[in-house]
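QA checklist item 7 of 12: single-chain prediction sanity check.
[x] sequence parsed
[x] length recorded as 183
[x] structure emitted
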Amino acid sequence: MTEEIIIAGFGGQGVLSMGKIIAYSGVMQNKEVSWMPSYGPEMRGGTANVTVIISDERISSPVLNTFDTAIILNQQSMNKFEKTVKPGGLLIYDPNGITHHPQRQDINIYQIDATEEATNAGLTKVFNMIVLGGFLKLKPIIAPEFIHKGLEKSLPKRHHGMIPANENAIEKGKEILKPYHLI
């Protein structure tokens, strides 16, 4: 099993931390892992993306041009990464701020209204975990107990009180994910 993922959006949406949680969780599950962030100089509002590879075998290179899964959180990322999903692959996106929805017919596409859900629940800090939950529903490559360990490892100790809220957000993401186009 090898899963090659791109997560892309604005800085401040938790793109890099979502990737880091997946990566740490994979390490805790004894998987081979690569985590390669890319972001602009802005702290918030600039674009950010992270490539994560989880595998049962050694990873030859962290540099990828195509992905099994793209998790897209803004229009600029949709424009850039929709075309990089392998045929038969998966694209998950939050429709908030998306003006041109995905057009590909050769991939599975799902919507997750994570922005709306996080805002309505007053939990904007766990927006990215709602999205992660949607991904894990479709591709359960990490067992829940290892996600917990990944959260413990990636969150500073002062934020460990937020781990239950993060885990609840993951479960909420599994509930609200909906198909947009299936092949």
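[x] summary fact logged: The CA atoms of residues 34 and 53 lie 5 Å apart.
[ ] second reviewer sign-off
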